[in-house]
Amino acid sequence: MAGIGLFRIFDPKVRRHLISDEGEVVIDEVRHHWVVFTVPMLEVVLAAALLLTMATTKIGGQPVLLAIVLVLLAHAFWQFLTQHRDRFVVTNMRVMRIRGVFSQTVATTPIARVLDITLKKPIIGRMLGYGHFVFESAAQDQGFREIKWVSRPDDRDLTIQRVIQRTGLRASASVDVLKGDEDSDDDGTGPIGMDSAQEVATTTAPITTTTAPQARPSSSPSATKSIFNSERGNWTDD
């Protein structure tokens, strides 16, 4: 319990940055993958090994070794805090990146400014389950250019895509594209213009040649003779 309480002390407290009165909620809070804690953990193991060596053997230079142990532990603890407090947050309104230990940096941008998202998964990342996101947006100078060491990258990518889809940005963009096509077709030069359609119908209409039947003698004196009028293209009676 004490470890959990100590862990919460260093939590960046993302929810206090939300616009609660406007209905903003957290969709996903992205923490770094555990692989970023590999180096700090190795430093802790090395420091523990040095301490064990100092306690079990009588070697010279123990003050130097003790100083090395303290440096290793301090650096490992600093790296742990730095990685733990670096969060990428997706809400229903915007994306945020919160980082920093003593001094905190909070960068935000509306979800509408996210243009393109590229997901990079190296070979080791595919095996361990992490990836890197590259954002093409108007907020690249605010720290959103690249988000590294993201756990479950495929799920996070789908989450971001769903949020963008629910905002209606892509739907409105599709409507704008359709409106632009209709406006370009009003002059009759587009693929669905009225003049073009008539021209296509005229050029592609099949030409049927009909041979007039031979007139047969009729025994009725009131019978009429039908001839084919080539200019009007129909049958007429004299």
Give an account of the 3D structure.
This protein has 7 helices and 9 strands; from the N terminus they run αβααββββαββαααββ. With about 240 residues, it is of the alpha+beta class. The protein has a domain at about 110-180. The strands form 3 sheets. The protein has a 4-stranded antiparallel sheet with strand order 1-2-3-4. The longest helix is centred in the N-terminal third of the chain and has 23 residues, at about 60-85. It is elongated, with a radius of gyration of 38 Å. It starts with a helix and ends with a strand. InterPro entries: YdbS-like_PH (IPR005182).
Task: Give me a quick take on this structure.
By secondary structure, the protein is of the alpha+beta class. It contains seven helices and nine strands; from the N terminus they run H-E-H-H-E-E-E-E-H-E-E-H-H-H-E-E. Strand 8 (226-229) and strand 9 form a beta hairpin.
